[in-house]
Amino acid sequence: MSNLPAFNTCDLCDAHGEAHPPALWVLPPVLRDFGSVPRFAGPVATVRCLEDNTRVAEAVKSPGEGRVLVVDGAASLRRALCGGNLAAAAAQNGWAGIVVDGAVRDLAELRASGVGIRALALQPLRPRKNDQGQRDVPVTIRGVEVRPGYWLYADEDGIVVSPRALA
Ligand SMILES: O=C([O-])CC(=O)C(=O)O
C-alpha cells in the first residue's frame, strides 16, 4: 500500500489524550502486528464472536468502504478468527484493517494481504462456522468500549479509538 495515512498515534495522544471528558482511549498494548500495512485508520465496524468466524467472513466479504473491522473474540486463543483468505477478501473489498481480540492464522498470507491486521497471537487451528456471533454491536476490547462508527487509528506505536475523527 503506497498511500499510508498521515496520522501518528503519539501526536493524537498529545493533542487529545488528556481531555475531560476523554476524546480518545488507547487499547492496551497487547495486540501485535501480523498484517501488511504498519498504519491504518478508519471508521469502525464490529463483530462479537467466540471461536466462530461466520460474522467476520460476512463482514469482510461486504464493502469495507475504508473501515476497520474490530472483532471481539473474547481473547480466546483456541481458534483463529481470520486467516489468509479472509484477509485477502478484506483487502479486495476495501477494508483498511482488522483488529482481533483473539487469534489469527496464515502469517505469510496475512503479511501479503494488503490489509492491516492486529491480533493477540497466531493459532493454526481454524474457526468454527456455525452461524454464531453478532455484527455491529458495541464491543469491549481489552477493557475499552468500541462502538460501530467510532474511529480507530493504528500505527507502530499503538491503537487509539475515538467517538469522532481526530486526524
Ligand atoms: O477458515 C477461515 O475462515 C479462516 C481462514 O483460515 C482464512 O480466512 O483463510
Automatic annotation (TrEMBL):
Database matches in InterPro entries: RraA (IPR010203), RraA/RraA-like (IPR005493), RraA/RraA-like_sf (IPR036704)
Listed Pfam families: RraA-like
EC number(s) given by UniProt: 4.1.1.112, 4.1.3.17
Record-linked SUPFAM superfamilies: RraA-like
Cofactor: a divalent metal cation
Keywords: Lyase, Metal-binding
Record has Metal-binding as a keyword: yes
Reactions catalysed, as given in the entry: 4-hydroxy-4-methyl-2-oxoglutarate = 2 pyruvate; oxaloacetate + H(+) = pyruvate + CO2
Domain of life: Bacteria
Protein task: Catalyzes the aldol cleavage of 4-hydroxy-4-methyl-2-oxoglutarate (HMG) into 2 molecules of pyruvate. Also contains a secondary oxaloacetate (OAA) decarboxylase activity due to the common pyruvate enolate transition state formed following C-C bond cleavage in the retro-aldol and decarboxylation reactions.
Subunit field text: Homotrimer.
NCBIfam families: NOT-MenG (TIGR01935), PRK09372.1 (NF006875)
Protein family membership: Belongs to the class II aldolase/RraA-like family.
PANTHER family assigned to the protein according to its UniProt record, in alphabetical order: 4-HYDROXY-4-METHYL-2-OXOGLUTARATE ALDOLASE 3-RELATED
Record-given protein name: 4-hydroxy-4-methyl-2-oxoglutarate aldolase
Organism name: Ramlibacter terrae
